[in-house]
């Protein structure tokens, strides 16, 4: 099979006819498949059900240090949960504050604190004429939704294979004090599965921003979400920031949403002491304490990082065949045709398909009409604007393998048709 770009117009038209017939056959099946969001499957959620047997009417509800989990108090979270989250986040327990059920919620609150009260004694962002934010792209749509909600101007930063373009970041932050932050998903990034190299982490920690209140939002959402035996490692950003004499530069976030239950786990923020004291001034007004019973359940279920590891292997066993099947289908159907490229992540929740320029929205539209809901084209970009209209985030976790197989087949038919439409004059 020749590349589509090497086919004559007649050959392109013939190929399109064949694929259009296949497409119609899929349409006739009236399928309803949803590939749009990176949710764990029911099978994955079932893995964590024993967590409910951890506490019963007879359980000791006090923590190791005597804190009563059923009562108010303990703003920073119970020690056992601080310990568990510090292992997941690869930092010190005393750097961690365990909050409610969602890291995204903590990120929103952290941006809101910068906006309302300011960081490090600087002017609150709400009082500034302009606030800008760096957004490595493609990235997590809900990050961009937060900074858009606060009215910040978002600046796209291209991603390389080992993390965001550091030359561009260093240049921008050193010159412009209206740039106040950057979104980072340093391990198995959403949506490309990229792992930041040591050099990128070090350069990030060594940034010299013009704004004293510039902060890195280090969303370590997929810290332990390996698909394979080989576990990618990243440097500890809090440590690197200390080494670089930049200890207040970073807030790190993580949760157990994709370890136990999405929306029913525990979430945490980690930072240095100065940031922590500032954070607590607001937190102490916001709440008397988060859900310590859920923290206790989690901490007793996962006694140490090895038990988290064992648990994540079970997730990987369910997820790996799904990822591999989608990638194989893309290789089989799109490889020879030279129709786009795709990532083969070693962890995380997404595969990114980079379609030929100007075809992503059309692929999503075609897929929808054949019963497959994909994440809208443009979603992984600020303002939903993909300058090349080429990135599609594929989320293989939720559907059962058989449904995913159908969705992947339909997807590659749509991708080829959209490309052929472009090539046929
Ligand atoms: N951060 C990233 C990069 C994600 O992909 C997700 C969910 O998809 C979240 C955060 C949401 O985390 P949480 O459930 O802890 O709010």
From TrEMBL:
Annotated keywords: Aminotransferase, DNA-binding, Transferase
InterPro entries: AspAT_Ic, PyrdxlP-dep_Trfase, PyrdxlP-dep_Trfase_major, PyrdxlP-dep_Trfase_small
GO molecular function, one term: DNA binding
Tagged with keyword DNA-binding: yes
Entry keyword annotation includes DNA-binding: yes
Name of the protein: DNA-binding transcriptional regulator, MocR family, contains an aminotransferase domain
Organism: Butyrivibrio hungatei
